[in-house]
Amino acid sequence: FKGNEFAWVDSAYPVSPYTIPVHKRPASLLPENTLFDSAVAHLRVRSEHCMGALKGRWQCLRGLRVNINSKHKHRAACRWITIAIILHNLVIDVEGAVQGEHFADTHSRIEEEEDRGTADLARDNGRNYGEAKRQQLVEELLAFRQM
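The structure corresponding to this sequence follows.
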């Protein structure tokens, strides 16, 4: 990640400068955190649908088991995924969006969990920064809602 980039993750991951999960209890019970967690959940569902559609259409992405241990291998994996996205969008342009929606259902939640494997847990260093970043995002969402 560069600069202020981060990933939305589920509550199984710890908060860090690069991972922003939804809140756990009791913090999840606060109204502002409930609103934030709901917005994050909506984003994650949309993202999962995109990944499901891609993996449903391009089975090669399900088997993309690359040990990324160098910049070269990272770039190769990114190119592989980018090519699948470009082809997916071209097919949708030719066949129409309705055909593309079909593939979102062919990749189930269980299959997605199998594809992910076990998560590498982030270290505690940066946890305070991650908490502050998440709080800032909550405040920005509340300010946006009041506009």
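The chain has five helices and two strands.
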